[in-house]
Design a protein that fits this description.
The chain is an all-beta fold. It has strands at residues 4-6, 8-11, 20-23, 28-34, 37-43, 50-54, 60-64, 80-81, 88-96, 102-110.
């Protein structure tokens, strides 16, 4: 049975100090903005699970978690592209950590 964990949004929680993450004591999902694109990464999640991300204007996508419980953008990936400066972009994230607990929250990136 999945239990729900509302995660804290933390800046600089990954190896990249500019990352904005939702996390609990087991896993995290992070986003980093760079040059007009936002890329996501994750760790400590259930191997083989999916991270569901609902972005601005109802755009959604799924990140497939590998057998080690992580996700890293593929080499050469441009990530989520945006066209507006000086705005806040909100991504609603739902994931399952490696204990099977629901990790969910909002990641807000200011451009």
């Amino acid at each position: 049975m999945l239990s729900s964990v509302v995660a804290a949004t933390v800046a600089g929680c990954s190896s990249d100090e500019s990352a904005v993450c939702i996390s609990n004591d087991v896993g995290d999902v992070c986003a980093v903005e760079s040059s007009g694109a936002i890329t996501f990464s994750a760790s400590g999640l259930a191997p083989g699970s999916e991270v569901q991300v609902l972005g601005p204007e109802e755009q959604s996508f799924i990140l497939q978690i590998d057998g080690g419980g992580t996700y890293a953008p593929p080499a050469g990936s441009v990530g989520f592209l945006y066209a507006f400066a000086n705005t806040d972009l909100t991504f609603i994230v739902t994931a399952t950590d490696r204990r099977g607990e629901l990790l969910e929250g909002d990641i807000v990136i200011s451009t």
